[in-house]
Specification:
- This is NB-ARC domain-containing protein.
- Among the domains are: 124 residues, Single alpha-helices involved in coiled-coils or other helix-helix interfaces, CATH 1.20.5.4130; 85 residues, no CATH class; 95 residues, Arc Repressor Mutant, subunit A (Orthogonal Bundle); 109 residues, no CATH class; 102 residues.
- The chain is built from 26 helices and 33 strands.
- The protein has a 17-stranded parallel beta sheet that branches. It has a 3-stranded parallel beta sheet with strand order 2-1-3, with helices on both faces. A 3-stranded antiparallel beta sheet has the order 4-6-5.
Length: 815
C-alpha cells in the first residue's frame, strides 16, 4: 500500500503547475520520463491490488522495490525544486540534467525488473476477480469460533426479532433483506441465527431455484459491511445495525463472565461498566474482553481496573479474533482509499476529527489525485473518498450537518489499533509513544508524536514528510482530550530551531497543543510545506510568503486581532485560512501593484468586516465558505459601507457575527444566489420584513439561522409572496420575537424547525400543520403556550394521517 501512496505522491509533485516554469530542455524530458514510469507503476499496483491466488511474498517484494525507488525519485525532485527556488546553485542546462540522470536510470531499471516479473506471472498478478464480497464474509466467519458467535448473538436479540418479522412478512413478492454494519458487529452471525431459526428455515428450504420471484413470499437475506451494497440490493430500508448502548454492552459482558444465572459482585459493576463502555458497543470486542476476564483475570476490583487501563493491549494480543476480522474490510479496499483510512491512526483515541481539516490533510499528504479529464476538484474527490469509507463502516460519522454532510468523524478504537499495526508494518506511519534508541531509528516518512520524548527529533529521518504533534491528558471532570505541550514553548532556542530545521521535506506540520511566544521563523525554511497548523502569540511574519506551496493555514492563538501580512497574497495555492478569533486581511496590493489574487481559496474563517473591501472580494472568486466578524468598537470608527458579494458565484456558506447594536447589517450585504447556508448572530436594528425580502431572493437557500438578534419590531409577518422555496432548516435562537404570522405556503419544503430560548414567542403558526415535508420541531426553553401550539400541530398531523412529526421539547424548568 505504501508503494501506491508513494507513486501517487510523486505524481502529485510532478503535477504542480510551476514545474513547467522551473525545468526546461533535457531536465524537463527527464521529469517526463519519471512521470511516465510512475504512471506505469500506478497501473501495475492498481491491478495487483485485485489479485487472487498469487504469490503474496512476490507481490510484497515487488511493492517494496517500487516504494524505495519512487520515494528516492521524489526526494531528488523536491531537492532540485528547492535549489532552483532558493538560487543556491547554478541549475540550468547540462548540470541540472545530469543531477536527475541517476534517478531516471534507477526508475527505468526498476521498471524493467517489474516488467520481467509480470511477463512470468501475468496470469496471476494481473488477474482481476470479483470475489471480494463472498470471500470477506466467509473468511470472517471462519475466524470466529461457534462459542464466540453465540456470545455475540446474545446482545442482538432485538435485531433478530426485526429480521424475523421481515423474513416472514406478509408481502408476496421477492424481498431482499439486507444487514449492514462495521466488521465485528455481528452481521453474519445474526444472519446464520435467523437462518437456523426453525420457522425461517421451513421458508428457505422451499426455494427450488435461485432467487425465484413467483409471488410466493420468497426472501433473500444478505449481509454486507458496505452500505452501498445493501442499498444496491434493495433500496427500501436496509436494516442498519448500530453499536450496542452501554446497558446492553454491560449485560453482554456480565452474562459472559458470570453466566446468566449467577450474580456478580456489586463492587465490580462500576468498573465493569467502564470496561464495557471502552469496548464502544462492538459485540466482537465485548465478547473477547469478557473471555479474557472470565479465564485469565481474578475477579477483583484491582485486576479489573488494570484491564480497563490496558484494553488496547489485550485486544491487540488477540489478532485472529479481533484485528484479523476487521482487517478484511481494509484489505478489500481499493488502493486509493487505504492511505486515507490509515491516516486516521495519526490521531489519539477518541479524537474528534473535523472533516474539512481532514480533507485538507489528505490533499496536503498527496493522497488525492483527480483523474485525467475530470472536472472535480481535489476537495470533491476527497469528499467522495470520505463518503466511501463511511459507507463501508470503517469511519464513523460523529456529527452531521442538517444536509447530511459529515462535520466530525472518527474511528472505533479497535480499528485505530488495526491502523497503527498496519501502518507500522507497511512503513506508512510511525506513532511515537515510547522512547527508542538510535539503533531503532524508524525509517518512515510520516510521524505522529503522541508523547513528548526528549531529543526524539534527532532520531527521526530528515526525509520525513508529515509531522503530527499531540500529548494527551484525561481530565477527571471533563470527558474530552486536553492537549498539552510536547515541544519547548515560549522561547526561541536551539531545540526549537533544531526540531524544525531537520526536516526540509516536510509537507504537513500540525502542532495541536504547543504555544510559541512568536512565530518560529525557522518554519519559513520548509519550502515544501502544504499544511501548517500552529498555536502562537502575535502576528504572522511577512516571510510567510516563502511558503509558496502552502495550501492550508490554521493559526490559533489568544489574540483577537491578528493581522495577516501583505505578502500573504503571494501564496497562490492557499485553499483554507482559519485563524483563531478574528483577523485583518490586507489589501491585495503589494508595492502599490494589484496582485492576481488567490484563485484556489475556498474558506476564509473569521475575517474582520473592515477588511472586506471590493478589492479583496474580487480577488478570491472561488470562495465557498466565508465567516465575517464585526465588533461594535470598530463600527464606531469605521464608516458602514455596502458589501457586494454577488461576484462570489461559488459561495455556499455565509456566517456573520455582528457584535454590535448600532447599525442594520441586513441592508449592507448583496448576497450571491449560490448561497445554501446563512447564519446571522447578534444582528440588530433590522425589521422582519427585511429578513423576508432579502432571503427569499436566494433560490438555493436551504438553511437559515438567526441567533441573538434583536429586531426593531417584534412580529414576523409573511405575505403570500414571501416564499422560501428551498429552505429546509429554520433556526431561531434568543430573539425578541413575540408574534409570527405565516402559512404553510411560505415554507413549502421545510423539514426541521428549531426554536431556542425564544421566551417572548407565544405560538407557532397553526397552519404549519399543512407543511407535508415537515419532519421535526424542536423547542428549547420556550414559553408554555408555544409548547402547547406545537403539541396541537403534532396531534392534528396525526389525525390528518400525515407522516409522523417528531416533536422535541426541552425545558430546563421541568423534566
Amino acid at each position: 500500500m505504501e508503494a501506491y501512496t508513494a507513486v501517487i505522491s510523486l505524481l502529485r509533485t510532478l503535477d504542480q503547475p510551476y514545474i513547467s516554469d522551473l525545468f526546461h530542455g533535457h531536465t524537463a524530458n527527464a521529469l517526463d520520463s519519471l512521470r511516465a514510469t510512475a504512471e506505469y507503476f500506478h497501473d501495475v499496483l492498481e491491478k495487483a491490488s485485485n489479485k487472487s491466488g498469487v504469490d503474496i511474498e512476490k507481490i510484497k517484494s515487488l511493492e517494496e522495490e517500487i516504494r524505495i525507488v519512487v520515494s528516492e525519485a521524489e526526494d531528488a525532485v523536491e531537492m532540485k525544486i528547492s535549489e532552483i527556488i532558493k538560487g543556491e546553485r547554478w541549475t540550468f542546462g547540462i548540470l541540472q540534467h545530469h543531477d536527475m540522470l541517476p534517478v531516471v536510470e534507477k526508475m527505468d531499471t526498476t521498471k524493467k525488473q517489474v516488467m520481467e516479473i509480470l511477463s512470468h506471472d501475468a496470469h496471476q498478478i494481473l488477474e482481476l476477480t470479483e470475489d471480494s464480497l463472498i470471500g470477506a464474509s466467509s473468511m470472517s466467519d471462519q475466524m470466529l469460533s461457534d462459542h464466540l458467535k453465540d456470545d455475540i448473538v446474545k446482545g442482538l436479540d432485538g435485531d433478530l426479532e426485526i429480521i424475523d418479522k421481515r423474513l416472514r412478512g406478509p408481502t408476496s413478492y421477492l424481498d431482499i433483506v439486507t444487514i449492514s454494519g462495521m466488521g465485528g458487529i455481528g452481521k453474519t452471525t445474526l444472519a446464520k441465527k435467523a437462518y437456523d431459526h426453525f420457522p425461517i428455515r421451513d421458508v428457505w428450504d422451499s426455494i427450488s431455484q435461485i432467487f425465484p420471484n413467483h409471488n410466493n413470499g420468497s426472501r433473500v437475506l444478505l449481509t454486507t459491511r458496505e452500505t452501498d451494497v445493501a442499498m444496491y440490493a434493495n433500496t427500501s430500508s436496509p436494516h442498519k445495525m448500530n453499536l450496542l448502548d452501554l446497558d446492553n454492552s454491560w449485560k453482554l459482558l456480565r452474562d459472559k463472565v458470570f453466566g446468566l444465572e449467577h450474580d456478580h459482585p456489586p463492587e465490580l459493576e462500576e468498573i465493569g461498566k467502564k470496561i464495557a463502555e471502552k469496548c464502544q458497543g462492538l459485540p466482537l470486542i465485548i465478547s473477547v474482553i469478557a473471555g479474557h476476564l472470565s479465564k485469565t483475570v481474578p475477579k477483583t476490583l484491582k485486576s479489573w481496573k488494570y484491564v480497563a487501563k490496558t484494553l488496547s493491549k489485550i485486544i491487540s494480543s488477540h489478532p485472529n479474533k479481533c484485528l484479523g476480522v476487521l482487517g478484511l474490510s481494509y484489505h478489500h479496499l481499493p488502493n486509493r482509499l487505504k492511505p486515507c483510512f490509515l491516516s486516521l491512526g495519526d490521531f489519539p483515541e477518541d479524537f474528534q476529527v473535523d472533516t474539512r481539516r481532514l480533507i485538507q490533510l489528505w490533499i496536503a499528504e498527496g493522497f488525492i489525485r483527480t483523474s485525467s479529464g475530470s472536472r472535480e476538484s481535489l476537495e470533491e474527490v476527497a469528499e467522495h473518498y470520505l463518503e466511501d469509507l463511511i459507507s463501508r463502516n470503517l469511519i464513523m460519522a460523529r456529527k452531521k450537518r442538517f444536509n447530511g454532510e459529515v462535520k466530525v468523524c472518527g474511528i472505533h478504537d479497535l480499528l485505530r489499533e488495526f491502523c497503527l499495526i498496519e501502518a507500522e508494518m507497511t512503513k506508512f506511519m510511525h506513532v511515537v509513544r515510547t522512547p527508542f534508541s538510535p539503533a531503532q531509528k524508524p525509517n518512515f516518512r510520516r510521524f505522529s508524536i503522541q508523547k513528548y520524548i526528549e531529543d526524539a527529533y534527532k532520531l527521526l529521518p530528515p526525509v520525513a514528510r508529515s509531522m503530527y504533534c499531540f500529548s494527551n491528558l484525561d481530565l477527571p471532570y471533563e470527558p474530552r482530550i486536553k492537549l498539552l505541550p510536547i515541544l519547548p514553548i515560549y522561547r526561541h532556542d536551539p531545540i526549537i530551531h533544531g526540531f524544525f530545521s531537520c526536516f526540509n521535506h516536510l509537507r504537513v506540520l500540525a502542532i495541536f497543543p504547543s504555544s510559541f511566544s512568536t512565530f518560529p521563523l525557522v518554519i519559513m525554511k520548509l519550502f515544501h510545506l502544504r499544511y501548517l497548523q500552529v498555536h502562537c502569540f502575535g502576528n504572522i511574519p511577512e516571510s510567510i510568503s516563502e511558503l509558496l506551496n502552502l495550501q492550508t493555514l490554521i493559526y490559533e492563538g489568544p489574540s483577537s486581532e491578528i493581522t495577516l501580512p501583505g505578502k500573504i497574497w503571494m501564496l497562490k495555492n492557499l485553499r483554507y485560512i482559519r485563524l483563531g478569533g478574528a483577523f485583518y486581511f490586507p489589501s491585495p496590493r503589494i508595492d502599490n501593484n494589484l496582485v492576481t489574487g488567490m484563485p484556489n481559496l475556498e474558506e476564509l474563517y473569521g475575517i474582520w468586516y473592515s477588511s472586506c473591501t471590493n478589492e479583496v472580494i474580487s480577488s478570491i472568486p472561488n470562495l465557498k465558505r466565508l465567516i465575517i466578524r464585526v465588533h461594535w468598537r470598530i463600527l464606531e470608527n469605521f464608516p458602514v459601507r455596502p458589501l457586494d458579494m454577488s461576484s462570489l458565484t461559488k459561495l455556499e456558506t455565509f456566517k456573520l457575527y455582528w457584535g454590535g447594536y448600532l447599525k442594520d447589517p441586513i441592508k449592507i450585504f448583496v448576497f450571491p444566489e449560490s448561497l445554501r447556508r446563512v447564519s446571522l448572530t447578534r444582528c440588530s436594528n433590522f425589521i422582519w420584513e427585511e429578513i423576508s425580502s432579502t432571503f427569499i431572493m436566494l433560490p438555493h437557500l436551504e438553511e437559515l439561522k438567526l441567533k441573538r438578534c434583536r429586531a426593531k419590531d417584534d412580529v414576523w409577518r409573511l405575505t403570500d409572496k414571501d416564499i422560501f422555496r428551498s429552505l429546509k432548516l429554520l433556526l431561531l435562537s434568543k430573539l425578541n420575537l413575540k408574534g409570527w404570522e405565516a402559512s404553510s405556503d411560505n415554507f413549502p419544503n421545510l423539514k426541521r424547525l428549531v426554536l431556542k430560548k425564544c421566551k417572548d414567542l407565544q405560538e407557532i403558526p397553526t397552519d404549519f400543520v399543512e407543511i407535508c415535508t415537515l419532519e421535526s420541531i424542536e423547542l428549547h426553553d420556550c414559553t408554555t403556550t408555544a409548547e402547547a401550539s406545537v403539541r396541537n400541530i403534532e396531534q392534528e398531523r396525526e389525525d390528518m394521517g400525515y407522516n409522523i412529526l417528531k416533536v422535541y421539547i426541552h425545558n430546563s424548568h421541568s423534566n
